[in-house]
Amino acid sequence: MTGTRWRNWSRTVEAAPATVAVPRDEAEVAAVVARAAATGRTVRPLGSGHSGSPVAAGDDVCLRLTHLDAVRPVDLARGLVAVGAGTRLDALSAALLRHGLAVANLGDIDRQTLAGALATGTHGTGAAHPSLAGGVRALRMVLADGSVATCSPRERPELFAAALVGLGAYGVVTEVLLHCPPAFLLAADEHLEPLDAVLDGFEQRMTATDHVEFYWFPHTGAAMVKENTRRPLSAGAEPLPRWRALLDDEVVANGLFAATCAAGTLLPGLVPTINRLSTRAVSRRRYTDLSHGVFTSRRRVRFREMEYALPRADLPEVLREVRRLIDLRGWRLPFPLEARVSAPEDAWLSPGHGRATAWLSVQQVAGAPFVDYLTGVEEVLVAAQGRPHWGKLHTRTARDLAPLYPRFADAQRVREAVDPAGTFASGHLDRVLGRPATAAGGGRSARPGGSCGDTLPGRRRDVPQRA
Ligand SMILES: Cc1cc2nc3c(=O)[nH]c(=O)nc-3n(C[C@H](O)[C@H](O)[C@H](O)COP(=O)(O)OP(=O)(O)OC[C@H]3O[C@@H](n4cnc5c(N)ncnc54)[C@H](O)[C@@H]3O)c2cc1C
After folding, report:
1. Residues 126 and 215 in one domain
2. Disulfide check for 423: which of 144, 258, 297, 313 has CB 3.0–4.6 Å away?
């Protein structure tokens, strides 16, 4: 397929790949990569385009792995399943359930592909639970020379450690060996609490329940707390009545929210009042349902997002600092800020590498000014040793990031070894991971980034303040 235009879900990045290949199997992936490498072209594997940063943008050969979507049990007793890299997370949950299994933890949505989600360190919440990458036992990949490699903690362990959260910079993942627990229920308790009470008891609260997160509504003192406790299937589901689920998720969370965001964009002065009224309208919900249905929901209101991984214990102080900044700068913010936690991880480029992590996400509705807000908050998050989510907006470069990741230089070394000519390079990857030394002066990463642009423009005068 040629002449295709590509854009991401949040409409922050556009690209015009020269070719989009849709290989039917791994052998075809290998053939496309080998051909591209031999003719000096670059290759970018595409997921479902849910990254807000230009990490998935490619302007030469792009690969859609929609045909690589098989879910194949390997050892059901041990919960080991081989999953095609292009499998969407919602399809994965459905297929696993048929085998009595589930994905251990999920984020807010399940429209991403498995390989795309792994590549940026996609995570949910839970102090004892790492990101999706924590469940991966091995990867099958097509490398830049067209060869197929398997890597795991035992086989090519350095490639595994680097490529697991690898931004698509190490090769094309074709299959993932995933460890999946027995299917389980989540008992959900969603309610409002004063933000200060949540921050005062942060450590205890975030570690007391399996999966805890909260949303703070700017311009109010209220936080919506979501506490999900794991239960065996035998405990029995008590789902929300269908009318209540539809009302909350479709009408309130999407329809009404879209309308209030639109009103707030037109009349920003109304936003604090809208937020206060919205929090008053929230009523407590308790229900028990299959894990994937509780972890994830539909997000139809498009937004711009930045999220940083912080040392867990520092989140209360950081969020208080961000609250002071919002008051000081007078930004009008209809979207809540989201706080989650995750366990330390081994993957070298995981933002949760080596430390108990708290995540803080800030979002602005599409169409409203966002650059000043995101870059202003980013200064606070950077000062707190934060590491940006690879799939969301940020301004950090390899030079900034290297001191924050103890194995950054090792990750660069492995990248250079497996892709010396920069077949999987892009302008964006050069910026955030550095440029392979061997690609200097004629390497393919010197190609212009097309309209992939920057991750998040710095606060410069020429930056449009509207989306
Ligand atoms: C509404 C919404 C909600 C979100 N919620 C969360 C959340 O709760 N938690 C969270 O952590 N993130 C969240 N995200 C971010 C999202 O999970 C990540 O950006 C994720 O990477 C997107 O997956 P994708 O399939 O769309 O991949 P893309 O964005 O298309 O690609 C991401 C990266 O994966 C690479 N890639 C894709 N396929 C392969 C492959 N086969 N081999 C190697 N590399 C590959 C691409 O080259 C690119 O570098 C959310 C995003 C949106 C829009």
Report:
1. no
2. 144
For residue 248, pLDDT beyond 90:
no
Q: Name the closest-CA residue to atom 52, ligand 1.
A: 50
Residues 196 and 78 in one domain: no
Q: Please, which pLDDT band fits residue 205 given cuts at 50, 70 and 90?
A: very high
Ligand 1, atom nearest to 86 Cα = 41
Whether 446 shows a pLDDT value over 90: the answer reads no
Query: Which is the closest atom of ligand 1 to the Cα of 121?
Result: 11
Residue 168 CA to ligand 1 center (angstroms) comes to 11
Distance separating alpha carbons of residues 108 and 122, to the nearest angstrom: 10
pLDDT of residue 299: 82
Domain hosting residue 113, numbered range: 71-179
Exposed/middle/buried for 5, CB within 10 Å: 0-12, 13-18, 19+? exposed
Ligand 1 contact via 135 beta carbon (within 6 Å): no
When divided into structural domains, the chain yields a total of 3
Tell me which residue has its CA closest to atom 41 in ligand 1.
173
* Cβ of 172 below 6 Å from ligand 1: yes
Q: How far is ligand 1, taken at its centre, from the CA of residue 342, in Å?
A: 18
Full-model pTM: 0.93
Q: Which two tokens stand for residue 134?
A: 């924590």
Give residue 3's pLDDT band: very low, low, confident or very high (50, 70, 90): low
Q: In whole angstroms, what is the distance from residue 203 CA to residue 319 CA?
A: 14
Residue 288 shares a structural domain with residue 198: yes
Give the residue from 362, 388, 414 where a domain finishes: 388
Together in a domain, 208 and 352 = yes
pLDDT of residue 300: 79
Q: How far is the CA of 50 from the centre of ligand 1 (A)?
A: 5
42 lines ligand 1 (CB under 6 A): no
* 142 and 111 within one domain: yes
pLDDT tier at 318, thresholds 50, 70, 90: very high
Which 3 state secondary structure label does DSSP give 290? strand
Q: Are residues 371 and 248 in the same domain?
A: yes
Backbone angles phi, psi at 441, to 5 degrees: 60, 70
Chain centre to alpha carbon of residue 23: 25
Containing H/E element for 31?
helix 26-38
Choice from 51, 300, 393 to test ligand 1 binding pocket (greatest atom count within 8 A of CB): 51
